[in-house]
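Bench log. Compound arrived from synthesis this morning; before running ITC I wanted a structural hypothesis for how citrulline sits in the protein. Inputs:
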Amino acid sequence: MTHGPSEMIAVMRPLSPSIGRCELTHLSRETIDVELAERQHRLYGECLADLGCSVVRLHPEPDLPDAVFVEDAAVVLDECAIITRPGAKSRRPETESVATALEPYRYLHHIHAPGTLDGGDVLVVGRNIYAGFSSRSNMEGIGQLRVLTARYGYTVTPLTVRGCLHLKSAVTRVGPRLLLVNPDWVDPGAFGWMELIDVDPAEPMGANALTIGPVVVFPASLPRTRARLEKRGLSVRTVDLSELAKAEGAVTCCSLVFPERPVID
Ligand code: CIR
């Protein structure tokens, strides 16, 4: 693992050559061009570095097809990190090395069986945590998340997601109290006190955006929703993750981005 002096950390993992055997829930299997996927993933990492992140690279896990999607293995809060227990059994061995990488920065908590939780189902907005009740995250896992985070003053609201893999396929944060949402996949009424931008109806995948400081990292393939973000005055950086999209991956899932705050004994 290597990282420089910057104060934002982005944990990433190299793409596994076995990605063609990834978990799929809503898409039919298509051939993934591993070389192109690697190039796109490298440019994504360069984009994060350019935005001021120190990239911490985990060791490769060539036999874990979905290991590049590090977001699902942990939830990093200011006070601690929660190591998840992914809903897909094939993904559970991914968490150990993510825990090792996060240990220098945060006190660690763990989700235990029979709970399941994918990081992609956890949206943090200030002290509000929204947790997707999905095919990957169950109420036991969400309940454990609630207990673990209550001591730090967070409230956890479970939300049912429909038609998509994770809560963050349906909604992400693009500003302090501004959300980008696909109202077909999650009930927008749940976010009553926040401002919402709807995805363009022609781009249902458009609700997944990665916000780093004042910049929104967004897929190049979704220009209509991008135009909506820009119209709102947001600064957008586009990345092309078309090959990882075939594995149901998007911009948030390839990194864990958080402020560096070493654990002090
Ligand atoms: C999976 O089904 O678990 C992977 N193929 C895709 C995971 C994407 N993760 C995310 O959006 N947080």
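What the model suggests: The CA atoms of residues 14 and 47 lie 15 Å apart. The chain has a mean pLDDT of 95.
ITC booked for Thursday regardless.
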